[in-house]
Amino acid sequence: MTADKIRILLADDHPIVGEGIRALLAGEPELCVCHEARDAAAALVAQQQCRHHLAIVDVSLGRDSGLQLVATLKRTWPELSVLVLSIHESQLYARDAYAAGASAYLSKQTPPPVLLLAIRRLVAGGLWRLPRTPESPSLQRLSKREREVLRLIGCGHSSAEIAGQLGRSVKTIEAHRENIKQKLGLARGKDLLRYALLWAEGKAPE
After folding, report:
1. pLDDT tens string 155-191
2. Which of 5, 40, 167, 200 is the most exposed place for a label (fewest CB within 10 A)?
3. Which GO terms describe its biological process (predicted)?
4. Pick the CATH number of 2-123 from 3.40.50.2300, 3.30.465.10, 3.30.70.1890, 3.10.180.10
């Protein structure tokens, strides 16, 4: 019965991630992935229905921001532990995740035993912090909003789509794009798109 287990909510828009985490936890009888959500709305509904002990959330949930979901989850259910799992090893994303209320931030390249150890620490009420690694000086120049715009560009969204999602005008998003190009030393719009696509894939642009 799941009532006797540590209930885990997985919010990730890649089914293969869910399969991997389920396989990792298969040998842990006290841990159970009760729900998988592909977007923020589904994750909130699942948490309302089940009241999980731990949520594992991807930074990017398609059109949704995983970090905004983390903030909403923690604001509504302060007792919920949240582990942010991402393709990005960036300390900037980690800083934003902890600011949103996450108890841990791990790369999807984290070895399974380390991920399991982090999960155990969180369900026991602890935190998980890894040593800081050097960050790209260029990325450090970007504001939190600019990093979110960069993420959405990398997901293939137009300025109009980004404006609608973030509740801003197209003119504001275009201004963000220009600021990002200047801060990253990119001359053209297609250079920004290439950079954003690589960043969305967790690769360090040249």
Report:
1. 778 899 888 888 899 999 999 999 988 888 888 888 8
2. 167
3. phosphorelay signal transduction system; regulation of DNA-templated transcription
4. 3.40.50.2300
